[in-house]
Design goal:
The chain is an alpha+beta fold. Helix content is 26%, strand content 35%. The chain has a domain at 5-122: Gcn5-related N-acetyltransferase (GNAT) (Aminopeptidase), CATH 3.40.630.
């Protein structure tokens, strides 16, 4: 592991370790995961309401992309987009369908929030869908303190979108 976060969990008699690492946007497993993500987004929301980033969007300056894996098995991804020096946006959070229910989304979210705090962001915001498909994601975000808000950045009001934000505690400065 090269600087990721590892967690060991008991799974019957087998112990597995997952790690969060910078993602390789040329990796075929990443491309498949992102293709699945975009397919789900377009099947649940009208095209004009899909704001998920593709590989080119995730490659843009100001966007940092990570994956979570268990050995060679890619399990999910997440990105953090800098909106300004104090405001980041959570993007492209996805757990592979076969890996859901294992707490991986929470791990990815905790990783992004730790990075946002490290960068000195005062706020992290996100846009997600209003449809039932997105309810588990909205519940996870609320569990971590995100609250609904109005559109931010370049977004506009959209009945197919829910906007959420989390105010981060300012970094503690030693006296």
């Amino acid at each position: 592991m090269t600087g990721g976060i590892a967690a060991t969990r008991e799974n019957g008699l087998v112990t597995t370790t997952t790690s969060i690492e910078p993602g390789d946007l040329t990796d075929e497993r990443v491309i498949r995961l992102l293709t699945d993500h975009l397919t789900d987004m377009f099947s649940t929301s009208p095209a004009e309401s899909v704001h998920a980033l593709d590989v080119s969007g995730l490659s843009a300056p100001g966007v940092t992309f990570w994956t979570i894996a268990d050995g060679d098995e890619l399990l999910g991804c997440v990105a953090l987009k800098e909106l300004d020096a104090e405001h980041g946006e959570l993007k492209s959070m996805r757990t592979d369908a076969a890996a859901r229910g294992r707490g991986l989304g929470a791990r990815l979210l905790e990783h992004v929030l730790a990075e946002a705090r490290r960068r000195g962001y005062r706020r992290v915001s996100l846009e997600t869908g209003s449809q039932e498909f997105f309810r588990p994601a909205r519940m996870l975000y609320a569990k971590y303190g995100f609250v609904e808000c109005g559109p931010f950045g370049d977004y506009v009001l959209d009945p197919n979108s829910v906007f959420m934000t989390l105010e981060l505690e300012p970094p503690v400065v030693a006296p």
